[in-house]
From TrEMBL:
It comes from Pseudomonas turukhanskensis. Signal peptide: none annotated. This is Ribosomal RNA small subunit methyltransferase I. Transmembrane segments: none annotated. SUPFAM superfamilies: Tetrapyrrole methylase. The gene is rsmI. Catalyzes the 2'-O-methylation of the ribose of cytidine 1402 (C1402) in 16S rRNA. Keywords: Cytoplasm, Methyltransferase, rRNA processing, S-adenosyl-L-methionine, Transferase. PROSITE patterns: RSMI. HAMAP family: 16SrRNA_methyltr_I (MF_01877). Residues 242-286 form the RsmI HTH domain. It is found in: Cytoplasm.
Length: 287
């Protein structure tokens, strides 16, 4: 990756600009200034973004940069940047590249030694996390789950024991089946939060155990409309000896007689496949 030190100062800059996810007042003063000042705006959907530009009285020309032309058309934006023009990249809503086009363009532009500057702002997953009341120090963003049940369940299985808060985007017509599969895989007790229509008139945030959240969404078709983010509390290891099988405890006990506790937990983890940290805790309790 190119570093700032070798950037060519005669070329333009690519600004990656976040735009509102609903409430137009969320656009930043800096975003408006950049969108006004650049020579060209690369937009996911020019007709959609034209309305935003008209709202703010921004006359800057727009050119399409969507997932189907991003790789091929990248050279066109690159040529403008190389000629010294500044370009802004926007998507239909929120932060470009976050479940939106832009990755290939940014990569291409950086590889060419051209400066890329983020202009941060709205992002649905961050907005949802900031108000969810779920642990926010560490989290993972899974984007959209596969549309078909088999793929979706496989993906959920893969993150079933993920201790960090999980964040998913979901389409409204799939929200109910998504919550059903989450309940199936994570269990009905696991706390989750549905953040719907963020920053808009019908904004709703509701956090409940998955079984209750799924039942609430099933019983109210309004909850199956609009844009949504689903957050799920990370997996918590069951506490104490109950969390590991009798066989694992036997292995751990034998090893504890032969070696120091930390080593015994590590070797037992290798033999049994149970997490080392969990076995370490169990070993502490058993000594
Ligand atoms: N780039 C966007 C961002 O920064 O959040 C995400 C674009 S992605 C194509 C669209 C998805 O983001 C929606 O299906 C929904 O899951 C989520 N999303 C976008 N706006 C939202 C809103 N106002 N409320 C809840 N979720 C939203």
């Amino acid at each position: 990756m190119t570093t700032q030190g070798v950037l060519n100062s005669t070329t333009g800059t690519l600004y990656v600009v976040a735009t509102p996810i609903g409430n137009l007042d969320d656009i930043s003063a800096r975003a408006l200034k950049v969108l006004r000042d650049v020579a060209l705006i690369a937009a996911e959907d020019t007709r959609h973004s034209m309305r935003l530009m008209q709202h703010f009285g921004i006359p800057t020309p727009l050119a399409a940069c969507h997932e189907h032309n991003e790789r091929d058309e990248g050279s066109r934006f690159l040529a403008r940047l190389q000629a010294g023009d500044d370009v802004a990249l926007i998507s239909d809503a929120g932060t470009p590249l976050i479940s939106d086009p832009g990755y290939h363009l940014v990569r291409q532009v950086r590889a060419a030694g051209i400066k890329v500057v983020p202009v941060p702002g709205p992002c649905a997953l961050i907005a949802a996390l900031s108000a969810a009341g779920l642990p926010s120090d560490r989290f993972i963003f899974e984007g959209f789950l596969p549309a078909k049940a088999v793929g979706r369940r496989a993906r959920l299985e893969a993150v079933k024991e993920e201790p960090r808060t999980l964040i998913f985007y979901e389409a409204p017509h799939r929200i109910l089946e998504c919550l059903e599969d989450m309940e199936l895989v994570f269990g009905g007790e696991r706390v989750a939060l549905l953040a719907r229509e963020l920053t808009k008139t019908f904004e709703t945030l509701n956090g409940l155990p998955l079984a209750e959240l799924r039942a609430w969404v099933a019983s109210d078709s309004n909850q199956q409309r609009g844009e949504c983010v689903v957050l799920v509390a990370g997996w918590q290891a069951p506490e104490g000896d109950d969390a590991v099988s009798a066989d694992t405890l036997r292995v751990l006990d034998l090893l504890l007689k032969e070696m120091p506790l930390k080593r015994a937990a590590a070797v037992a983890a290798e033999i049994t496949g149970v997490r080392k940290n969990l076995l370490y805790q169990v070993a502490l309790e058993r000594q």
